[in-house]
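Record format v2
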Amino acid sequence: NAGVTQTPKFRVLKTGQSMTLLCAQDMNHEYMYWYRQDPGMGLRLIHYSVGEGTTAKGEVPDGYNVSRLKKQNFLLGLESAAPSQTSVYFCASSDRDNNSNQPQHFGDGTRLSIL
Amino acid sequence: GENVEQHPSTLSVQEGDSAVIKCTYSDSASNYFPWYKQELGKRPQLIIDIRSNVGEKKDQRIAVTLNKTAKHFSLHITETQPEDSAVYFCAASRGTGRRALTFGSGTRLQVQP
């Protein structure tokens, strides 16, 4: 049981390049999230998904797109990378409970640098 | 939307002392309040959480208290040890809708041996 797995772990891009970050979870969780973490700040929500085939914007969605074609995978895309997107990206997932929140489980993160 | 403020930003204590980190939130509909510990270069790890129907929760040396009326919650670590040194984040979320977490800005705890 690997939990939440993110690939790649590190990546350096040039401004204007595109790339996709992959998040995979093996816990059969309904909810999945992408956060970014910048120095001295907490994690901020980029996009999220409440189930297969559904996605929605979070607090800082500009410049990113997401897809959830399969329940276990949540992809984060950067169409045209900008230096402001240099950050550590964390994926998380949580189970569904109609009455309350369930704990979020985080991946190890992807450290992305845009030159 | 929700706004979570966390204080202090840094905290230095002697080994064996207690540490307290405080957070306030703005959305009265928030009902879930987890605390995460993050070591350098690692993922956030859930250490304790509390729901709005409970005022206090303990797990060995860690406790969290919640005051719904004042909209604040606190993390208490007793008998601190050097391995408690890390960045701690509070967070809040609603029990409906997206259920995404809104994080505080973090507290860097340094436990001096």
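The two ends of chain A are 36 Å apart (CA to CA).
Chain A has a mean pLDDT of 93.
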